[in-house]
Every structure is written in structure tokens, then in C-alpha cells.
Design a protein that fits this description.
It is built from 5 helices and 20 strands. By secondary structure, the chain is of the alpha+beta class. The radius of gyration is 23 Å and the shape is elongated. The N and C termini lie far apart (about 50 Å).
Length: about 280
């Protein structure tokens, strides 16, 4: 992954050739769009480059930021705390040069989860997970780094965040295309210890029996979404009756059958049961 927080007034053959070599090698190149308030500058306007413009603290496209169809994604680019030339820190800066590294960092996170991602897949992920921002020049997508990364990981989505003990809970799941066989684990960290879900729907005390998979050899060749607990799912809606108040953290992990390692990282989905 390469980040280019710079612009050139004219396209040069030297830089274009370097970009071509990087793109031919499958390297994702992220570049700042520029700050003239006009069209996207080189090298961000070069084919295959992930061009980045900037939004302000209100989430709107910065008036001085360059814009146009070569912009793949927007990121924060105003009131950025930065280092000083010659040493020291504390200066406040604006510009697409500060937005571009935020996108580059997200690209690095995506590649850490799935090194096989192509440039087109990375661009699609960034644009598909962001927030729409409309400007007189068009509609753009603002970076949502967390959503970008989580979209590559198994995730559990509870029907809320705060519940009473008299409530019921439904839980949905989202599985990415993992590309190879994995074992899926579902667990909950509770105020009285960790428990994992067994294929039978029974909860097993993980502190005593260890963690066991709820599904084995899941192929993960395509994305999948659905209900885990609730109507239409394999398990009924969960009653919270009798559970003590406190924090409950849902966890889902995909473990590679070939390496025995967790794919990416484990996503936490916390909920709270509050005393009535």
C-alpha cells in the first residue's frame, strides 16, 4: 500500500511510470486530490489510483478541496493536529494531504484482514461502506473505517443495546466471503463468566469446557446474512428473564480449518441489561 499526500501541477512520465509499476504489482495506491477547489490533481486523477478529498467537522465537503469523478472516498481533512517541520508537534493543519493517510490506514487494515484483496475490491469496500455526502459537484462517499473493516469479519447484530430483564433479544449475523473452510464460534462474556453456543442451542460454560464451534467446516464462499436468534433463525428468540443486570458481550469468530488461526480479529457486540 502506498500513500501519496502530494500533488503535482503537471503529470510527469517519471511519476506515471512509477505508478504503473506499482499498479501492475497489485499495490493499492492512495493519493490526495488537492486543495485548489477545482478538479482532481495528479497523481490522484491517474487511472487506478484511490483519490481522496476531504470533509470538515460537519461531514461536508471542504470548499477548498478538489472534487470530481476521480474521488473514490472522502475523509476528515480539517483541524488536524500534526507535527512541525524540523520537529515538535501541535500545529493545526487542513487539507486533503491529511485525509489521504486516514484512507491509507484503512486500506492497510483491510489488507491485514484479507491480504488477497484486489485494488478493485478495496475501492468497492471503501465506497460501499461509507456515508453519502452530496455536493453541488456530485455525490461522494465519506470514509467509515470501522464499517469497512467489520464488513470483512463475521459480525453479530443484537436488536438493541440496552434491555430490561423482562425483554427478549433477537440476534442477526453477517458473514463475509471467507474464501476457505472455517469453524464458527459464538460466545457471550457475561457478568458470571463466558459461555459458548453449541450446535444444539445449549450454552456451555467456556471456563469449564472450553470454547466449542457452533458450526464446522463452513465454506464461506459468498457473503451471508440472516437471523441467529429469532423468527426464521435456527434458534428461538432469547428471553432475558432472570439474568442479572450488567454488560454482556457477544462474540463471533471464524477459525481457519487449515491454519487453526482466527480469521482477522474477533468483533465484539456489547449489550447491557439494566435493573428495573
Amino acid at each position: 500500500m502506498i500513500n501519496l499526500s502530494l500533488t503535482l501541477s503537471d503529470q510527469t512520465q517519471t511519476v506515471a511510470s512509477a505508478l504503473e509499476r506499482a499498479l501492475a504489482a497489485g499495490i493499492a495506491v492512495v493519493a490526495a486530490a488537492g486543495n485548489g477547489g477545482g478538479t482532481v490533481s495528479f497523481p490522484a486523477n491517474y487511472p487506478g489510483i484511490i483519490g481522496v478529498s476531504s470533509v470538515n467537522q460537519s461531514g461536508q465537503l471542504v470548499s477548498t478541496a478538489n472534487r470530481g469523478p476521480q474521488v473514490a472516498v472522502l475523509a476528515p481533512g480539517t483541524h488536524m493536529v500534526s507535527t512541525r517541520l524540523g520537529g515538535g508537534a501541535g500545529t493545526i493543519q487542513d487539507g486533503t494531504s491529511f485525509a489521504s493517510p486516514l484512507v491509507a490506514g484503512t486500506v492497510a487494515q483491510l489488507l491485514a484482514v484479507d491480504p488477497s484483496l484486489s485494488r478493485d475490491q478495496i475501492r468497492s469496500n471503501l465506497m460501499g461502506s461509507g456515508t453519502s455526502v452530496t455536493d453541488a459537484s456530485g455525490t461522494y462517499v465519506a470514509l467509515n473505517s470501522g464499517k469497512s473493516v467489520v464488513s470483512l469479519l463475521p459480525d453479530l447484530i443484537a436488536s438493541g443495546q440496552s434491555f430490561a430483564s423482562s425483554d427478549a433479544l433477537t440476534v442477526a449475523y453477517s458473514l463475509p466471503a471467507l474464501g476457505s473452510a472455517v469453524d464458527l464460534y459464538v460466545a457471550v462474556d457475561t457478568p458470571f463468566g463466558p459461555f459458548c453456543l453449541l450446535p444444539s442451542g445449549i450454552w456451555s460454560d467456556a471456563s469449564q469446557a472450553g470454547y466449542q464451534p457452533v458450526a464446522t467446516s463452513y465454506l464461506g464462499l459468498a457473503t451471508a446474512q440472516g437471523t441467529l436468534f429469532g423468527q426464521g433463525g435456527p434458534f428461538p428468540t432469547l428471553s432475558l428473564a432472570g439474568l442479572p443486570s450488567g454488560r454482556y458481550v457477544w462474540l463471533i469468530a471464524a477459525v481457519s480449518r487449515s491454519s487453526g488461526k482466527v480469521v482477522g480479529t474477533i468483533v465484539e457486540s456489547p449489550i447491557s441489561i439494566v435493573a428495573q
